[in-house]
From TrEMBL:
<dbReference type="Pfam" id="PF01547">
    <property type="entry name" value="SBP_bac_1"/>
</dbReference>
<comment type="similarity">
    <text>Belongs to the bacterial solute-binding protein 1 family.</text>
</comment>
<keyword id="KW-0732">Signal</keyword>
<keyword id="KW-0813">Transport</keyword>
<protein>
    <submittedName>
        <fullName>Extracellular solute-binding protein</fullName>
    </submittedName>
</protein>
<dbReference type="InterPro" id="IPR006059">
    <property type="entry name" value="SBP"/>
</dbReference>
<feature type="signal peptide">
    <location>
        <begin position="1"/>
        <end position="23"/>
    </location>
</feature>
Length: 437
């Protein structure tokens, strides 16, 4: 899921560009056939667009309005109706749209972990050909492209990306003579040192319900959540490498850093809030948390570096959260909808979204450009550039995520109810059942 549709502490995926006034030709972008229940290709009429409403929606609306004005000017007889929907109600809204196509949008914003489920439900149009013909996509981040790809076909355009890195208190580090940790082992040692010297603080705020803060430890140790074998997904969270990562993360819970009594139930928002309130020396936070931390009592007393890996010089892979745009399969305006989607996901407006809202671009060249202009995002860009990770591209992931399989696994370990082999084994069995269904 996006690190975000909220601009405060929760900002998927997590969480997640809107447009460029591309001087596209008058030819309609080609789309793939993809099935029998598609609509038509009318060249006039009203296009409906559903976008997520942000806490501060005014900048997003200004950017979208500019794109829409240019689009309507280029297409006589076309009107665009944009609605901003609450992210929390997206599932209900999409269900209604699928049950009543007459009320459905033509273009829709969705969390990147929603892609596979929407494709399975027949909601999204296969836009592979249009995506490949779009010259800007040569610069699309591979992980962002993966987030709109199901079984080799493309079902949208990446809109923005969110990623996490290590926030740390510069004043605390200076007082204790500490340096930013260069490995995950050093991270654990540094956290315990801070807790020892500042017993009122967590060395690093961690949460048993913070899946996307924990997974970098699994990936850094060479583990995976699941792998596709013979065309089917199989859980690998109980493999030896993954167990090392689970152990490294769960070892951070305890009286020497973050006591399970308070930390086992914490999620990502809780850990960032603890850091922002001065209760932690470090936290794994997202680029989308900048506003919350920058406006808190630790403003001016923190910095950010990439989360280190197992060996010095390595960066732990991060989860690539974010949002995508897609075209509904039942649209009656296929060509126009694809054109508008590309305008609402191109480089020019991704630059504007970053400048006005802080959304990280999904294009590598655009991202490097904004990093040069804004030093704060440099550690997040470095993290993305070394290769971020994504969740299994299968509808089963929605069920796994909703059932809290991974948080339950971490919580059982940190609470002492199960050891790492037992908890990871139970999680793997539950995941395999979901994959089989």
């Amino acid at each position: 899921m996006r690190p975000s549709a909220l601009r405060l502490l929760s900002r998927p995926a997590a969480v997640l560009g809107l447009a460029t006034a591309l001087a596209l030709t008058g030819c309609a972008p080609s789309t793939s056939s993809g099935g029998a229940e598609q609509g038509g290709d009318d060249r006039t009429g009203t296009l409906r667009v559903w976008l997520f409403r942000e806490v501060d929606n005014a900048p997003k609306q200004r950017i979208v309005d500019d794109v829409v004005a240019g689009f309507e000017k280029q297409h006589d007889g076309v009107t665009v109706d944009v609605q901003y929907i609450p992210v929390d109600s997206r599932a209900e809204k999409m269900k209604g749209a699928l049950n009543d196509p007459s009320s459905a949008p033509d273009v829709v914003e969705f969390g990147n972990t929603d892609t596979a489920g929407l494709v399975e439900n027949g909601a999204l149009l296969d836009v592979t050909d249009a995506f490949e013909e779009w010259d800007e996509t040569a610069d699309t981040d591979p992980t962002a492209r993966q987030s709109v790809t199901v079984q080799g076909r493309v079902y949208g355009a990446p809109l923005f990306v969110g990623v996490r890195a290590l926030y740390y208190r510069t004043d605390v580090f200076d007082d204790l003579g500490l340096e930013p940790p260069a490995t995950l082992d050093e991270l654990a040692d540094t956290a315990r040192r801070i807790r020892q010297e500042r017993p009122q603080m967590y060395g690093i705020a961690v949460g048993g319900s913070y899946t996307y803060g924990a997974l970098p430890f699994v990936w850094a140790h060479g583990g995976e959540v699941a792998e596709k074998r013979g065309g089917a997904w199989t859980a690998t969270i109980d493999d030896a490498a993954a167990r090392k990562g689970v152990t490294a993360y769960t070892d951070l819970f305890g009286p020497g850093n973050c006591p399970p009594a308070t930390c086992a139930q914490m999620g990502g928002n809780d850990t960032v809030e603890a850091f922002a309130n001065g209760k932690a020396g470090m936290v794994i936070g997202g680029d989308f948390n900048r506003e919350a931390v920058g406006n808190s009592e630790v403003a001016g007393s923190y910095d950010v570096v990439p989360l280190p890996g197992v060996r010095e010089g390595e960066i732990a892979p991060a989860f690539a959260g974010g949002n995508n745009l897609g075209v509904m399969r039942g649209t009656g305006h296929r060509g126009l909808a694809v054109d508008l989607m590309r305008r609402l996901a191109g480089k020019e407006t991704q630059e504007r979204l970053f400048a006005e809202m802080g959304f990280l671009p999904t294009f590598t060249d655009t991202r490097q450009q904004v990093a040069a202009e804004e030093p704060f995002v440099e550690p997040f860009v470095r993290t993305l550039d070394v290769g971020a990770k994504f969740v299994p591209a299968t509808p089963a992931w929605s069920a796994i995520d909703a059932s809290q399989v991974l948080p339950t696994m971490f919580q059982r370990v940190v609470s002492g109810k199960q050891d790492v082999p037992g908890a990871t084994g139970a999680a793997a069995r539950t995941m395999d059942e979901a994959f089989a269904r």
